[in-house]
Amino acid sequence: MSTTGTTGTDDEAALVHRGADLLRFATAGSVDDGKSTLIGRLLLDSKTVFEDQLASVERASRDRGDEYTNLALLTDGLRAEREQGITIDVAYRYFATPRRKFIIADTPGHVQYTRNMVTGASTADLALVLVDARKGLVEQSRRHAFLATLLQVPHLVLVVNKMDLVDFDEEVFRRIRDEFTDFAARLEVHDVQVVPVSALEGDNVVSRSARTPWYEGPSLLHHLENVHVAGDRNLVDTRFPVQYVIRPQSGRHRDYRGYAGQVAGGVLRPGDEVMVLPSGLTTRIAGIDTADGPVAEAFPPMSVVVRLEDELDVSRGDMVCRPHNAPTPTQDVDAMVCWMDESAPLAPGRKYAVKHTTRSARAVVKEVQYRLDTDTLHRDESADRLGLNDIGRVRLRTTTPLLADEYRRNRTTGGFVLVDEATNRTVGAGMITSA
Ligand SMILES: Nc1nc2c(ncn2[C@@H]2O[C@H](COP(=O)(O)OP(=O)(O)OP(=O)(O)O)[C@@H](O)[C@H]2O)c(=O)[nH]1
């Protein structure tokens, strides 16, 4: 069964293709804050839910003796469906309104929250942290907010839920909001929104509620629909990691040679002078092709095929950039690493496979510089290893040079994962601090 929303027009499809009207957001909260209910409410009120799903949830709610239609059943039901037979750390859900399409990275489970959240939030435009109005900010709320900013998620929303249980008291909201704003001021995030809602009763989720006349901000959905994300993309530094070389062996296209990949930064146009790394050779872009035909420009996150004027020796893992704006190939990498392996810690001397954009290399851990306490933001410099869910600063030496940028400059070319070569499991996620 698909949970994908409305079928769009071709125009919409083109917009989505360009990422212009798509918002990816990650949700986080502690147990029972109401995350499932909130997501259920968004799906329901945006009419993404099918009649039969709704009918079955209504039936199940009645059977359980619930007073309300239990929206969490909707979310959890979808979750269970997704999880059948496979281990999924992050469940992705889709819904759409006439203004935008949304992809929610929902991170179920509380034990592995750091790992899950890193997975879910690494590509998110926005992170939504939920708290229960009766409890206010708890340790996990701070940790989630911190992780989101560490992953450079540009927009942060604190949803103060269950306002109905505190009689929509402005004072309660104000206290939580102020405490959060103070905390967020210490983090690297520029856009913070705090919204009082009742996920259960629908207040301020889709439309503004008459029960919070003191609240002057937008409803949650209105904010999600309008938050400006186009400016978050790096359109300055041209970065095109080559994923595949396309060269038909026969037929009338056998003279075609193109390089397929997803634009990671900047804008590419036919005629642009470009440099290909690691060779350093320069040429011009002859044309840019997509599944829908040639285009006059390409920018993140478009997937395209780039043709070059000269026949250079380009292969998977190479990077097309600009002659005067290119990453410096480096084998010494400093990074914040989130460790995700329960079987063994990251420690000096250990070797891993590195996946960075479309490139693979091997790396040895030279040093653990410190481990970060995500609650106090304190750096423990005596730490010499990272255990499951730990985050710390690490120095690596790779076997072949990476074509890397700082993560804060580019989340794609600044990020990497570490893979255990014996098990082929992803054991760490890294954000390059200097290359
Ligand atoms: N009164 C009230 N109850 C709510 C509200 N939102 C959620 N709840 C209730 O809080 C309980 C927990 O809600 P869930 O949506 O299951 O919580 P969750 O955070 O998703 O929990 P997980 O199952 O861990 O994902 C349920 O009994 C909900 O009905 C709200 O706005 N007001």
TrEMBL record:
Q: Which UniProt keywords apply?
A: ATP-binding, GTP-binding, Nucleotide-binding, Nucleotidyltransferase, Transferase
Single GO MF annotation? ATP binding
Domain (Tr-type G): residue spans on this chain = 20-235
Question: Where on this chain does GTP bind?
Answer: 29-36, 106-110, 161-164
Q: Supply the Pfam families for this chain.
A: GTP-eEF1A_C, GTP_EFTU
Q: What is its EC number?
A: 2.7.7.4
| Pathway annotation from the record | Sulfur metabolism; hydrogen sulfide biosynthesis; sulfite from sulfate: step 1/3
A GO BP annotation: sulfate assimilation
Q: Does the keyword Membrane apply?
A: no
Known catalysed reaction(s)? sulfate + ATP + H(+) = adenosine 5'-phosphosulfate + diphosphate
Q: What does this protein do?
A: With CysD forms the ATP sulfurylase (ATPS) that catalyzes the adenylation of sulfate producing adenosine 5'-phosphosulfate (APS) and diphosphate, the first enzymatic step in sulfur assimilation pathway. APS synthesis involves the formation of a high-energy phosphoric-sulfuric acid anhydride bond driven by GTP hydrolysis by CysN coupled to ATP hydrolysis by CysD.
Subunit comment: Heterodimer composed of CysD, the smaller subunit, and CysN.
State the similarity comment: Belongs to the TRAFAC class translation factor GTPase superfamily. Classic translation factor GTPase family. CysN/NodQ subfamily.
* Name of this chain's protein: Sulfate adenylyltransferase subunit 1
Q: State the organism of origin.
A: Pseudokineococcus lusitanus
